[in-house]
Amino acid sequence: MKKKLHISYNAPVVLTFILICLVVLIIGILTGGKSTQLLFMTYHSSLLNPLTYLRFFTHVFGHADWAHFIGNASYILLLGPMLEEKYGSKMLIEIVLVTAVVTGIINYLFFWNVGLCGASGVVFAFIIIASFTNFREGEIPLTFILVACIFIGQQVYEGIVISDNISNTAHIVGGLVGSVAGYFLNRKAAW
């Protein structure tokens, strides 16, 4: 007897994250960006405003447009399920939260005139963590070195040379969070 095929919700954190980003994007489009600016973009605002603290976490759900969303969603859907399977849903949530708050706070402190939204920092954290998949204690994987040089090096270069609306700092910080997380997650596993 043949088993029926069914669709499985195989990576609940990743899929839920992408669905939230999609809903936030649609609402943002419907409100002309007002909802994104109010709740899903971090920028320098009063520390007396409770939304300032909320936005340190929620800015990763907001995206400027479809192209921004699709670019981030593609990487997250590609890398996220593998990471969620290897490290577990709880750990992936922690990585997303740490990446969000660290990029949010750094943007708040150092880039007063720049609004930050999107999951690019999470994408870079995932890319770097994925490069640690074959980590052994006492070794630095060449894949990590190459990925760090290519992705983070590109962000440093673009941050200096190209003037656009992309927050290269969020990418670099996401990569640094991914480096630390990837190292400690895999060091613990190697023991």
Polypeptide structure, described:
- The chain has 191 residues and is mainly α.
- It has one domain: Rhomboid-like (Rhomboid-like fold, Up-down Bundle), CATH 1.20.1540.10.
- 69% of the residues lie in helices and 0% in strands.
- Helix 1 runs antiparallel to helix 4 (66-87) and helix 7 (142-161) runs antiparallel to helix 8 (168-190).
Reading the helices and strands in chain order gives: HHHHHHHH
CATH class: Mainly Alpha
From the N-terminal CA to the C-terminal CA, the straight-line distance is 44 Å
The portion of residues forming beta strands comes to under 5%
What is the CATH fold-level name?
Answer: Rhomboid-like fold
Shape: globular
Tell me the structural class. Answer: mainly alpha
Poorly predicted ranges: none
Approximately how much helix is present in the residues? 55-70%
Into how many domains do the coordinates divide? 1
CATH architecture grouping: Up-down Bundle
Number of helices: 8
Largest sheet properties: none
Look at the structure and name the CATH superfamily. Rhomboid-like
Report the strand count.
Answer: 0
- Based on CA atoms alone, the radius of gyration comes out at 17 Å
| Mean pLDDT across residues | 86
Name a few traits of the molecule.
mainly alpha; 8 helices; 191 residues
